[in-house]
Amino acid sequence: MHCALYDAGRCRSCQWLETPYTQQLSQKQAHLQQLMASLPVANWLEPVISPPEKFRNKAKMVVSGSVERPLLGMLHRDGTPVDLCDCPLYPDSFTDVFAALRPFIARAGLTPYNVARRRGELKFILLTESRYSGELMLRFVLRSTTKLAQLKAALPELQRTLPQLAAISANIQPVPMAILEGDEEIPLTDNQALAEQLNDVPLWIRPQSFFQTNPEVAASLYATARRWVAELGVNSMWDLFCGVGGFGLHCATPDMQLTGIEISKEAIACAKRSAELMGLTRVNFAALDSTAFATGEGSVPELVLVNPPRRGIGAELCDYLTRMAPLWILYSSCNAVTMATDLARLSDYRIVQVQLFDMFPHTAHYEVLTLLQRKA
């Protein structure tokens, strides 16, 4: 992949860009196998590759510059702004959106936030695309509600220019720190859910719910989990840290008892909507802390799927899973370092198979799916 920003030294987010893609995969696989060197693995599967460019469905753009000439991109540590509108990781469809947003910001009088001076209102633009419908979700992250009326008044023209904007909202983030969003979300359109579909599963993205940024590899990840679970023939399953329900909804059958747990109410609302559309009646999604739920629940499912954040599931949940002793554990990880630590704690389980999914080309990051079986 060629990137003019990288060549000019303006952006080095893709640290491995000069490394051939096949070598990137080899290095990631070697890193994963090194982390798990002390953990016997029965079957290593080939890594799942990603398109090298235009794979992202989401842009998180820092807004800087002036209200007359806003700049969308990022800030270096020294405060120097970098325009990332031409980043080759974004789909072509983002080009027209970025071009329309710059004059819109000026017309709406949304003064870009200045980090050093702690002045201004517009901090970030968050853009998400549905690869299923081509529709977009647009979020304005503001320091306060001061410019909210101006934003609302200017929106109709933007919506005429970009009819693909299906959901628009304003997020209020008043803290003068590098925090992407705040707790308060103000809807600016009646619709606040972006319809997506991976494989044959309808999914929904709401403003404050997490969704994978590489939908093609995410679809492979979910399809693989579905295949592995189907081969086990289980009838009861927990999906912990379930997000919008991607894993559980792929694995569920009409006869399976599925419980999905996620702390985000927004994500759970999406999961429930998908389950209803799929006609799944033995599914229960709830907005709870996954560890607190699991360690307080008395029943034991045949399979527990965990998809934790980068910190992993931790000692408390590992200890409880060991005592609870489900037949199978399916562990999806975005941080192989913490996953390896967790797997070492789960010594009552053998590792049946492991597969790497290259969700983040040109970086050292990757995702892993690991199937564990309780030892006899």
From TrEMBL:
Residues of the active site: 334 (nucleophile), 334
Sorted UniProt keywords: 4Fe-4S, Iron, Iron-sulfur, Metal-binding, Methyltransferase, rRNA processing, S-adenosyl-L-methionine, Transferase
Gene3D superfamilies, sorted: 2.40.50.1070, Vaccinia Virus protein VP39
Catalytic reaction list: uridine(747) in 23S rRNA + S-adenosyl-L-methionine = 5-methyluridine(747) in 23S rRNA + S-adenosyl-L-homocysteine + H(+)
CDD domains per UniProt: AdoMet_MTases
One Gene Ontology MF term: iron ion binding
UniProt keyword rRNA processing, yes or no: yes
Annotated EC: 2.1.1.189
InterPro entries, per database record: 23SrRNA_MeTrfase_RlmC, Methyltranfer_dom, MeTrfase_TrmA_AS, MeTrfase_TrmA_CS, SAM-dependent_MTases_sf, U5_MeTrfase_fam
Protein family membership: Belongs to the class I-like SAM-binding methyltransferase superfamily. RNA M5U methyltransferase family. RlmC subfamily.
Reported function: Catalyzes the formation of 5-methyl-uridine at position 747 (m5U747) in 23S rRNA.
Name assigned to this protein: 23S rRNA (uracil(747)-C(5))-methyltransferase RlmC
Organism: Pantoea coffeiphila
Lineage: Bacteria, Pseudomonadati, Pseudomonadota, Gammaproteobacteria, Enterobacterales
